[in-house]
Amino acid sequence: MTDSVQTQTVDDDDKITPEILKIAGVVVLGAIMSILDITVVNVALPTFQQAFDVSELSTVAWSVTGYTLALAAVIPLTGWAADRFGTKRLYMTAIALFTIGSVLCATAWSIESLVAFRVLQGLGGGMLMPLGMTIMTKAAGPQRMGRLMAILGVPMLLGPIMGPILGGWLIEVASWHWIFLINLPLGLAALVYAQVILPKDSAQPSESFDFVGMLLMSPGLALFLFGVSSIPETGTLESTRVLVPAIIGAALIVGFVFWAFRPKHPLLDLRLFRDRNLAVATITMFLFVGAFFGALLLVPTYFQQVRGESVLKAGLLVAPQGIGAMLTMPIAGSLVDKMPVGRIVPFGFVGIIAGVTGLAFTTDPSTPYWQIIVWLFIMGLGMGGTMMPIFTSALKTLKAHDVARGSTLINVVQQVASSIGVALMTVLLTNGFKDSAAVSAGQAIAKAKEAGTNPPSEALATVQRLGQDFQSTVLQDMADAFHHTYLVALALIVVALIPVAFLPRKQEASHLLDDEGKPPVIVH
Length: 524
Known about the structure:
2 strands, Growth Hormone, Chain: A, 3 domains, two-stranded antiparallel ribbon
């Protein structure tokens, strides 16, 4: 790729100039829109069900699934498109697509139209993060990458926390339409901002498009994630709805892996895994993201289901995790520019392991909130020292023309890991609920009441057997299910320490400026 995005800002000085901060502002604004939108809609699903008169929540859930699948399908195209059209032009196109999709979502007249417009939104949203990482990497240069990537990490961490808070508040004070309309002023501001601030870059139109790779990877990734994301709903891996798309998707992805080494410019350049830093960082991130984000998603659910809190309050109670991350992320970003990543990330993992362990042993319904908040805060401190240093390590030793493809690879892996982790943790929690006669009885009675039918006799027998202890037994059994699910997440995070041990612990040469004829720069 011959993009010269921000090459004018890359010099021998390691200071973060006002020009670089302005570029970072463009990227962060786009990231905020994309990431917030993923979580803010989750809160509105019951509202959609009522607004569009849909009987099944699973039908409404397609407003989330459609967005995610579009996101997954378009991410692999981003590296080629950045080379072909230039990062500035493509980034502005992605923002425009996302904004137009948001406005159309607000005008939806049926659940089918909402899903269609969400797909359009996802096509734009899927490109924003990999393009943002590419732009930030080139703006930063090898000496400032850690600090700049830390800035990009803020919306990535706050999205899952602020989304439910913002969504719940907008629905409460206005209507569901505003969870989409709020993107209009943000999108217009981002477009103007990008046009003025981002320097022009040169495209490379001569590069051929990998049509075979696209036909294998994009539908393969979408089908695989659809199968995986159906696991929580079906509650089993053996469902046809899970197995058929997941197997077909996995087969297409395997086919792509064999194909990817044939063309000179594949859709996803798997040859980049020859870079040791990228390979080790990607393995670390896959294990870490799957376990951590899968577990983090359950925390608001715990506050709502076990402690009976509203969506808004549950989101506020999770906020200390984001505050902890915001405190350590700038520190970690600064340290990454001064010392090897392998000497920083292990300390972040200590905080995460301590936090998840604390959460696992504070699920009892009588646990004081301050104890849970302390563990969330500690977990956030660890997260701030982990996520973006891993991203930085993955891209730091790539050449400039490989950065767009490297960031695309990382985002594909992150999307897959997050979907698998969420599905795994949700299934474990759901099965934990099913193993409890009290919880199953409570759910059956609630479902019958909602449908206006008589509860099953087995459920009524369980209520009669437990008597006055029924409600407390339900809450305790639910708390135990959260406890066991957190322990599984903890085990996966501990496993991630294996690749963490192979992260670089010595100074290495950065090749980011090689394309400009400059000698390699020694980075930490």
